[in-house]
Amino acid sequence: MGADRGILAGRPRRGVRGGRRHHRNGPAGEGRRTRARLEDVVRTRIFLTNIEDWEKVGRAHAQFFRDIRPAATLLEVSRLIDAEVLVEIEADAVLAPPVGNR
Question: Which of 13, 24, 40, 49 is the one with CA 20 to 30 A from 85?
């Protein structure tokens, strides 16, 4: 299982919608982009600094994952590592093993 972790700053909805451009690999990815596609995502975790933004962020999440429907958790946190960041989305993707020779 691979993990992509996106950290987004600015307005919550705009940040979520731009999230596909701002992802990076977790430790297993060793800094390289994965072969993961949006369709490979099986779980997301959304961390908000203001729970009142949950509907806006939820709608943006639903636009990306309308047909995929991964398990999703939404949590309010007191702050993220960068005080300007309002929402952080973590996504887990399951990749099929490569076919044929490497």
Answer: 40
Q: Evaluate whether residue 86 is within a structural domain.
A: yes
The Cα 102–Cα 100 span in angstroms is 7
For residue 66, pLDDT beyond 80: yes
Q: Rounded to an integer, what distance in angstroms lies between the CA atom of residue 1 and that of residue 21? A: 21
Give the range of the structural domain holding residue 76, as residue numbers without chain letter: 2-93
- Cα–Cα distances in angstroms (integers) from residue 81 to residues 8, 14, 25, 51, in the given order: 11, 19, 18, 17
Instruction: List pLDDT tens digits, range 14-41.
Output: 555 444 444 444 444 444 556 788 899 9
